[in-house]
Automatic annotation (TrEMBL), chain A:
<keyword id="KW-0830">Ubiquinone</keyword>
<feature type="transmembrane region" description="Helical">
    <location>
        <begin position="116"/>
        <end position="136"/>
    </location>
</feature>
<dbReference type="GO" id="GO:0009060">
    <property type="term" value="P:aerobic respiration"/>
</dbReference>
<keyword id="KW-0812">Transmembrane</keyword>
<comment type="function">
    <text>NDH-1 shuttles electrons from NADH, via FMN and iron-sulfur (Fe-S) centers, to quinones in the respiratory chain. The immediate electron acceptor for the enzyme in this species is believed to be ubiquinone. Couples the redox reaction to proton translocation (for every two electrons transferred, four hydrogen ions are translocated across the cytoplasmic membrane), and thus conserves the redox energy in a proton gradient. This subunit may bind ubiquinone.</text>
</comment>
<keyword id="KW-0874">Quinone</keyword>
<dbReference type="GO" id="GO:0048038">
    <property type="term" value="F:quinone binding"/>
</dbReference>
<comment type="similarity">
    <text>Belongs to the complex I subunit 1 family.</text>
</comment>
<keyword id="KW-0472">Membrane</keyword>
From TrEMBL, chain B:
<dbReference type="GO" id="GO:0005886">
    <property type="term" value="C:plasma membrane"/>
</dbReference>
<dbReference type="InterPro" id="IPR001457">
    <property type="entry name" value="NADH_UbQ/plastoQ_OxRdtase_su6"/>
</dbReference>
<dbReference type="GO" id="GO:0048038">
    <property type="term" value="F:quinone binding"/>
</dbReference>
<keyword id="KW-0520">NAD</keyword>
<dbReference type="Pfam" id="PF00499">
    <property type="entry name" value="Oxidored_q3"/>
</dbReference>
<comment type="function">
    <text>NDH-1 shuttles electrons from NADH, via FMN and iron-sulfur (Fe-S) centers, to quinones in the respiratory chain. Couples the redox reaction to proton translocation (for every two electrons transferred, four hydrogen ions are translocated across the cytoplasmic membrane), and thus conserves the redox energy in a proton gradient.</text>
</comment>
<feature type="transmembrane region" description="Helical">
    <location>
        <begin position="32"/>
        <end position="51"/>
    </location>
</feature>
<dbReference type="InterPro" id="IPR042106">
    <property type="entry name" value="Nuo/plastoQ_OxRdtase_6_NuoJ"/>
</dbReference>
<keyword id="KW-0560">Oxidoreductase</keyword>
Amino acid sequence: MAEFLNGFLLPLIIMVLKILSITVPLLVAVAFMTYAERKIMGAMQLRQGPSIVGPFGLLQPFADGLKLFAKEQILPEGANRVVFYVAPMITFFLALVAWAVIPFDYGLVLSNINVGVLYLFAISSLGVYGIVMAGWASNSRYAFLGALRSAAQMVSYEVSMGLIIISVLLCVGSLNLTEIVKAQETVWFAIPLFPMFIMFFISALAETNRSPFDLPEGESELVAGFMVEYSSAPFALFFLGEYANMILMSAMTSILFLGGWLSPLPFAPFTWIPGVVWFALKIAACLFTFVWVRATMPRYRYDQLMRLGWKVFLPFSLFWVVLTAGVLVTFGWLPK
Amino acid sequence: MILQGIAFYVFAALLVASGVMVISSRNPVHSVLFLILAFFQAAGLCLLMGAEFIAMILVIVYVGAVAVLFLFVVMMLDINFRELRQGAMEVLPLGGLIGLILFAELAAVLGGWIVAPGVEKLAGSPTPSIDTVSNTVALGRLMYTQYVYLFQACGIVLLVAMIGAIVLTLRHRVGVRKQDIGAQLARRRDEVVAIRKVTTGEGV
């Protein structure tokens, strides 16, 4: 009995508590992200944004959530029931499960695995399944077109994203996310690898299907793309998944290029602030840019999107990998 | 350690179950989805064995890229599933034979693995001890030193295959209106815009 308690029950309880301590704040962050997006876009377009529910409209996301869950669930005729309901679950699940390897501060990570970057990359490359399955199972032309677009788009941008990550890894010499942040103590990678930083951010926009690359749901041509047939809770799951993915991609950008939990300047007044706060601030800055881009840029045309991915990003990131490796070898800066 | 044990049995059971579902489900899209599930379980098993790099590469390459294209193609197919089923019984003996041969080969390989001298040591510790060098580093060292020529040869084979696929499917169509970004950017204002003074009642 004691062995059962120590070997199984106790580790299980601790693990569940740790997982909850990440997912619950994440979900709250997602809720307020939707609020922040509407507020920021409102300010940029000289509107007020949500301001009725609660002080400054702060309770708006919860009102929206309640409304969504209270609505009727509709299963389209001829839809594939199981796949139709599994798709939003996959999207939501993948957006949450990636957070297991994100280090919030030195040692403050759920599982510090050696292949952290690969894990994140693997999880983000799975995101396409939720969308493709949703598009296929809905038995609708619009949804299917949206799903096909999204599949092509996400696969294209993953290639250049992988190469960008490789150029960061060359400078670190490890796939561990904690090591990656520690390697940026002298200088954040956003400075020596500046073009890669910009390209990673743009690829992140494409990877999360955000504007100006939101063709999978482009409402002017495809109504709402892969989500046309969804309503109520499944739709809410897609929505939450999209925003959680945005936060995840911002976290990835800050870990790979903006020095994760490190303070911008390594002396007194800055180092007093705990690393978690710096990390959160960097994520918030990235998220603000996500919204900013959405409020300013028109949507890309589909062939232009593909051209950008394959003919601009891919050759340039490949060139940059060779360049980084060349510089590191020539000057003997290769990490041990 | 109980948790790891449970994880192993869950992964293994789901792997076998989804493998069976791949060949027995009626809808080919379901088959592909079960195939993806099987890949995923296999990655989980690799992870439990400590082969973290292989597990992640399995997910990235097979699940993230290959299976997406698979799914893509299968979803686009418009086939009559019932007709497809009817032919299945005719090729069953052939399929069974191939399965049997594969199974025999696998058994022979596994048998040879245990019997051959010196292999037991290798099988026990394929990488140097986990504490000193991580999985990825060990693989990289082996691949880029001892097997570098074979590795490069693999790369060239893949490159040739890719170029071949492009050459086979590429066809130049005439009369397609294509955007030429270079030409667009190279345009000057005075080449395309002319300012005329138009007098009232006469037109240009």
